């Protein structure tokens, strides 16, 4: 059972610890730069990338504006294709639905296809409490699960591990979960992949229930779409008798024509490939082919609240490509665990506080986990303006649970700026006292001035300068 993010410290403290780990910084630097360079080459091949990006944004925005209609259409399409649709308002409801569906089969274990949604709701932990074992089949997720670790990247959950570490994880822990790794296992990538293949093959051939997510759900046909690079997901989607898919309500695309745009955007942005190695699609159930039962669990879990925010809702356009993580200078140095969420990096800094709220120290700190350099916006394939949402969420945090002194300062500033006479008086007072302003503020203000230089206060305000200039011109 993998560890959870419960009890993680706020970002500043977690990042301070992570940046002190030289091996972690080396692993992240090497991996993110490699993926970043591949993406740049793949995107550079297309003359119409900017048009594709604009099309992806437009499709997502149109879908979100009419999400209620497309959700109803998706339910009708899935039901017509022989599937069953379940609605989950939150994580607890989704976990309860999946648990009951697995129990109804009489099985006590399930295979897992890599899924951010099931990680978000901590499905594995809920199944374990119900006496049901969940086995991850994505190679990186397998590494995380075997080492009782946490995922640290959207695309490559074990990006913080190097080959030598993975070899030791396989040698020490594979035997407790199934077929053991060879005693003479090397850290050669091919040898590691072969050990994982042998280990997983037993599970693929014996398990009767699988749980997946979906990268996209096509509303007009009820088709689920999963993109992956290994083929393990396809084994899970075709061999078991029962397939349960937990899908966020924002994953809908209206038509196959719309899907075509994202099948170009996603692989180039995520793995730097022209096309995804394995793209699996299925619509309901088909007699004699694939699972006999298909269940779709549509997950809200804070998405409706996010949709209601006219600025923050653009985070729901995310297609989980991880390009923003690979370009982010903060993520490259702090790693994914510092974000205290299954969604790390820039997208996690705006998505987690919206899905979970900003009531906890972890979520209140995430909007500040950025330099606002804007690199994440430049590489986002659906043009999410992450810096804009970060500033928007900082405003929410500051007004909702900021320090009392900060709140008092904002109230005073609002009062002064609300009347031109008060503003004029304040500017003159600041000019008179400019030589008395300390370079370092006392109390809570010290944290602000320790990382910023206070601007010099001019002797005269612009208003006074302009008034004097006008008077001189009239003489």
TrEMBL record:
Entry keyword set: 4Fe-4S, Electron transport, Iron, Iron-sulfur, Metal-binding, Repeat, Transport
Domain Lactate utilization protein B C-terminal: 399-471
TM segment ranges: none
Gene3D superfamilies, sorted: Alpha-helical ferredoxin, NagB/RpiA/CoA transferase-like
Stretches assigned to the LUD domain: 71-298
Xref: InterPro entries: 4Fe4S_Fe-S-bd (IPR017896), 4Fe4S_Fe_S_CS (IPR017900), FTHF_cligase-like_sf (IPR024185), Helical_ferredxn (IPR009051), LUD_dom (IPR003741), LutB/LldF (IPR004452), LutB_C (IPR024569), NagB/RpiA_transferase-like (IPR037171)
Pfam families for this protein: Fer4_8, LUD_dom, LutB_C
Annotated 4Fe-4S ferredoxin-type domain residues: 315-384
SUPFAM superfamilies (alphabetical): 4Fe-4S ferredoxins, NagB/RpiA/CoA transferase-like
PANTHER family the record matches: LACTATE UTILIZATION PROTEIN B
Protein name: LutB/LldF family L-lactate oxidation iron-sulfur protein
């Amino acid at each position: 059972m993998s560890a959870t993010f419960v009890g993680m410290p706020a970002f500043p403290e977690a990042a301070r610890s992570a940046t002190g780990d030289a091996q972690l910084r080396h692993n992240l630097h090497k991996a993110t730069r490699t993926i970043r360079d591949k993406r740049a080459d793949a995107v550079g091949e297309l003359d119409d990338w900017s048009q594709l990006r604009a099309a992806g944004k437009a499709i997502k925005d149109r879908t979100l504006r009419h999400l209620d209609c497309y959700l109803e259409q998706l339910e009708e399409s899935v039901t017509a294709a022989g599937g069953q649709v379940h609605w989950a308002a939150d994580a607890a409801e989704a976990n309860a639905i999946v648990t009951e569906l697995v129990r109804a089969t009489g099985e006590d274990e399930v295979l897992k296809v890599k899924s951010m949604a099931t990680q978000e709701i901590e499905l594995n932990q809920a199944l374990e409490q119900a006496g049901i074992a969940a086995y991850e089949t994505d190679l990186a997720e397998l590494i995380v699960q075997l080492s009782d670790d946490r995922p640290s990247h959207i695309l490559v959950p074990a990006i913080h591990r190097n080959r030598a570490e993975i070899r030791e994880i396989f040698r020490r822990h594979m035997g407790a979960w199934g077929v053991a790794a060879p005693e003479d296992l090397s850290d050669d990538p091919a040898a590691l992949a072969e050990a994982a293949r042998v280990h997983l093959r037993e599970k693929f051939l014996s398990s009767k229930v699988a749980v997946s997510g979906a990268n996209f759900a096509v509303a007009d046909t009820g088709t689920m779409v999963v993109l992956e690079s290994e083929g393990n997901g396809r084994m899970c989607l075709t061999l078991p008798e029962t397939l349960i898919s937990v899908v966020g309500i924002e994953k809908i695309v209206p038509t196959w024509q719309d899907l075509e745009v994202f099948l170009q955007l996603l692989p180039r942005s995520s793995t730097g490939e022209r096309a995804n190695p394995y793209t699996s699609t299925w619509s309901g159930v088909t007699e004699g082919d694939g699972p006999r039962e298909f269940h779709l669990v549509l997950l809200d879990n804070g998405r409706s609240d996010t949709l209601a925010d006219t600025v923050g809702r653009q985070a729901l356009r995310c297609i989980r490509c991880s390009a923003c993580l690979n370009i982010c200078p903060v993520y490259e140095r702090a790693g994914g665990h510092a974000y205290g969420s299954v969604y790390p990096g820039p997208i996690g800094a705006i998505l987690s506080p919206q899905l979970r709220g900003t009531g906890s120290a972890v979520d209140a700190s995430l909007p500040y986990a950025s330099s606002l350099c804007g690199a994440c916006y430049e590489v986002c394939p659906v043009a999410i303006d992450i810096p804009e949402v970060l500033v928007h969420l900082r405003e929410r945090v500051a007004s909702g649970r900021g320090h009392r002194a900060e709140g008092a300062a904002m109230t005073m500033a609002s009062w002064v700026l609300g009347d031109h006479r008060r503003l004029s008086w304040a500017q003159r007072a600041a000019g008179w006292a400019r030589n008395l302003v300390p370079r370092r503020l006392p109390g809570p203000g010290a944290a602000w001035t320790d990382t910023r230089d206070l601007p010099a206060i001019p002797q005269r305000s612009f208003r006074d300068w302009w008034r004097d200039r006008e008077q001189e011109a009239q003489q």
